[in-house]
Every structure is written in structure tokens, then in C-alpha cells.
Amino acid sequence: MARIINPILKGFNPDPSIIRTGEDYYIATSTFEWFPGVQIHHSKDLVNWSLIGRALTRSTQLDMKGVPDSCGVWAPCLSHHDGIFYLVYSNVKSFQGVWKDTPNYLVTTNDIRGEWSEPTFISATGFDGSLFHDEDGRKWYTSIQLDHRNIKFFGGIVLQEFDPRSQKLIGSPKLIFEGTSLGKTEGPHLYKKDGYYYLITAEGGTEYGHAVTMARSKNIEGPYEVHPDNPLVTCRDDPDWPLQKTGHADIVQTHEGEWMITFLAGRPLTKLGRCTLGRETVVEQLNWKDGEWPSLCSGNKKPRLNIPISDNPQSTAQNILRDNFDSEELDINWQSLRVPVDPSWISIDSNRNVLVLKGRESLSSTHSQSLIARRVQSFKIEATTKLEFSPTSFQQMAGMVFYYNTKHFHYIYMSRSSGGSNNVLRIASCDNDLFSEPLGEEINIGSGTEVFLRGIFFEDIIQFFYSFDGENWTKAGSELDGSILSDDYIREGGNSYLPAFTGAFVGLCCQDLLGNSRSANFHFFEYKELENEDCN
User: Fold this and answer.
1) H or E stretch including 26?
2) Which of 90, 202, 341, 486 has the most CB within a 10 Å radius?
């Protein structure tokens, strides 16, 4: 018998919003400061999922230049009605201090694999906006209401009608749900079944107290009665369960009539520890009889690691992905930070099959970095590249980086020696905005301009290597703490107010702090999941 293996979307794929059209399933997930915005995965069987695109591909749809870490695109809501796909998303501009700036927009398309429309502004009342298409043709918008008074923050869920003709909200917003005792009520989605409007929300915060709450009403404007066995989903009472932080859910009915619920989860390295892969997407079956409240088919409130299903699909997952830069377009797994990929700073030389990055701002910049990266999606991975670079100053750098945000990364790079007479390799780390060079002395590579770089991320350890022939490898520096590339680490030590919602990436980058756009060439990039191998 076939099985769904959780998580279904590994590595930094939070806030899933799921729909079905015919026998096709689509999930949209949050991307925060990474561009293009909103990942869209597709499946025919709920077992095999493939990334088919991202909805927000133009700066006119998504202007994130300068947004703080873990701001940008939050909690997209994907829906489909009368042949049109709708996507609501927040583009969070600031999230520190008593006031939050959280504009919400709507884009549409007839082809989910194609281009999406220019955005329509909806509201800045809060975030986690969601669009519900009622049976009578009316459309309703829900979101969290931010309340800065007395630093309350979570002000409940508000409802307002959306007019598709004017593309605006009409009437006045109505507070329909203030939440339960779990608190921190957010992530609303509405459904209609058996004469009831069901409201699902995320509560308890997106850490280890996370949960899925459900309420229902005969009237869309309420009052809403809370599920008698609330919460519907949570792992907050079982810290030993391998899937933690379960919450922020969405529901879909399969083409065979079954009900499924998808939500985010984290996989800590240790009990209630750090989740370097970020928040991932899992799924579970629902038992939802007519007129009754739903419950998980797992028999409790926790998702199973393996879910038996009646169909017999075979897993098509690959553990080695190599990009030889032999196409004019970047592989779909790559993303940039905050701004679109643009010929002014990145190109592929089709004659030589190399990726060319023109050096721009530092890894601390929230504006114009020359960096592309992909998600780390396994606890044991190896990344390898060949770098060609001719720096003229210690202020020019290029290499491979394991990156969480502008304040947390580990970077091996080629640069010019302090004396300016030869090229060197260095390692730089940034931990809670404190910069250090744990390698110590520079690795002298003389006049050489080409070097192979490798990074192995083994659970909570990162080890860099270098080679001149791609076969014989030498360790570069000592083992580094990879667990600093996690939400949990950033929130430790009294930093719970800082937004930290993404996950670890590995990527290629180039900096020219002189402003001369010195370029670096990368001949290939290989990402390999090591399974049970070690990192020696």
C-alpha cells in the first residue's frame, strides 16, 4: 500500500494553502523576503509534489527592496472559482515596534502555471488575508485585525465583503472571532459544509505552542461556536513527537470525496530544539461526517509520519540535483533576496556554461545583494561548486554561503590577501549580527583564480572544504554551528520580538564593496542529500 510521507513539502514551506481543480492539487506557501514570491507546488496523488512556479515574479507585484528579515510575503491564500485562480498575500513592510505595516493584495490568473495579474490592494488591517467564495456568488475577505493598543497585537478575525467588479472591499469590517484561550489568533480560512460556515484559525503562536482551532456558525457573520474538542490539531502536549509546531491549516476535499487537512510543522534536531529546515508542510486525513465536527484520522491531534492511502503512486523524489548552467533560465529552485533576478547583476554565459554574478552589496544588505540560493531540504546535505574569480581588493568577495538572514550566515569566499599580493580563501560567520572570521589565517591560493568549494550541512554542523581539481578535498576551517540558521536560535535569549520565520538556504554570491561590480563565474552547482552518509 502506498503512503504519504510527512512532511510533503520539505524545508521552509510554511503556511500552506491548498486547492483542488479536477484531479490536480496545488499548494501555495509563504516566501517572506525571497524572490519570486509564493511557491506553488502541484500533485496528482498527494504523494509526489513538484514546484511548478511562483506567482509573484515582477517587482510591480512585489516590491520588497529594503524590507526587514522575515518580512515580505506572508501566508498566501490560494483559491479557485469559475475558472479563475485567486491569490491573496501580505507584503509586510515592518514588524518591529508597536505598529505593523501589513498591506494585502490580490492577483488572479486563468493559468496557474502562467503569468499572474498586476496586484489589487485590498486592506492593511492586518495580515493572513483569505478570500472565500460563497455559494450565492458573494465573496468574503477575512484577516487578522492588528491592535496596537496596550501592545495587544492580536485583535481577532475580521470579515468584510469583497466586490469583484470594483475590486474593493465594501461595507464595514466585522469582528467575527476573538479567538480562544490559546491566544494569538491568526491564519483564518472559511469553508461551507452541511449548512455551516466553518472558520479555521491558527492559534498559540507559530512555535511549540502552535495549534489549529475550528469554529462554526449558521451565519457567516457569526456568532461562531468553538469546536468542542478544541484544538483540532496540535503537538503542544507531546514534546517527543518528531513533528512539532503544527498549525496554520487549510482543508481540501479530494476528487474521491475524502477530506484532507494540510498545515505547517517543524522537525527539531533535539527535543523542543532548533529546526534548521524551517517550517515545512505536512498533511493528514480528516474524518468529517455530515453535520458533525471533524477530527484527525490519526486518532489524536497529531499528524502521522506515514499515512496509508488506497492508490499506489510511486515516489519520484531525487536526492541529487545538479545545475550546469546550460540554460538561459535559472533552475526553478533558485531564489534571490528581495529583488528580481535582473541582467544588471546576474546572467548565464551560454558559450561557457557559467553563471556570472556581478558583485554588489554585502550580505548584511536588505537592498541589492548579488545572491541566489536554494532551500536546504534535508538534515544531511552536500553542496559543491566551481568558482572562478579575480579579485583586486579584500573588499571584493565571491563564494558559497549557508544563509538564514542578514544577521545569521556562514560564508566561504575567495578574496584578495590583506597585502594585496595574492588570492586567498576566507570563512566569515555572522551570529546574531556579530561578525567573525572563524577560519583564522587566510588560505593562500597564490595567483590561482579557480577553486572548487564544498559545504556539508550535517544536522547542526557545517564544514567547508576546498579543492583545486574537484577530486582531492581539504577541510577549510573547523566545524561551524549550523543550528544558528534557525527560527528557534534567533528567538532565544530574549529575542522573541524579532520576526524569524524562514529556514536555511545554501547559495552562491558575490560582493564588490568598492562599487565596481567585479564579477565572479560559477561553473556548476550540485546539491546532494546524503541520506545516512556522514560528513567526514
Assistant:
1) strand 24-29
2) 202
